[in-house]
């Protein structure tokens, strides 16, 4: 066909039943009648943005897990410390009761 069948010079012209179809070549975009070079900068930009968002998501996830682990450690530590104090207090109470009972004099039987 002359002049690529009315398609852009960067497109393929294919005959169809009752007409033709224009399709832009690889590296070009458009409707086939007008094809513009596809910007590799735009493709790289979108890939870089995607990589950046994945990195931000992973970083936020790791930070969240670290904070969660820190909170768990603080909670466990508080409970362990309070349990230790409770044990010491109970032991002290037992010892003081023993001392009181030991010091009590038994009444003399006559």
Please name the defining characteristics of this protein.
alpha+beta, two-stranded antiparallel sheet, 110 residues, Laminin, single chain
Q: Name the beta content range.
A: 15-25%
> What is the fold-level CATH name, i.e. the topology of one domain?
Laminin
Question: How is the biggest beta sheet arranged?
Answer: 2 strands, antiparallel
Determine the structural class based on helices, strands and strand pairing: alpha+beta
Number of alpha- plus pi-helical segments: 1
Shape: rod-shaped
Termini, distance in Å? Answer: 139 Å
Give the integer mean of the pLDDT values: 79
Question: What's the Cα radius of gyration?
Answer: 42 Å
Which regions contain 5 or more consecutive residues with pLDDT less than 50? Answer: none
Number of strands: 4
């Amino acid at each position: 066909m002359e002049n690529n069948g009315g398609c852009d010079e960067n497109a393929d012209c294919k005959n169809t039943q009752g007409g033709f179809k224009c399709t832009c070549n690889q590296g070009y975009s458009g409707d086939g009648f007008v094809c513009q070079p596809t910007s590799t900068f735009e493709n790289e930009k979108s890939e870089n943005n995607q990589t950046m968002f994945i990195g931000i998501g992973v970083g936020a996830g790791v930070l969240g897990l670290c904070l969660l682990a820190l909170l768990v450690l603080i909670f466990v530590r508080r409970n362990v410390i309070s349990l230790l104090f409770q044990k010491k207090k109970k032991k002290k109470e037992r010892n003081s009761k023993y001392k009181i009972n030991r010091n009590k004099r038994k009444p003399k039987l006559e």
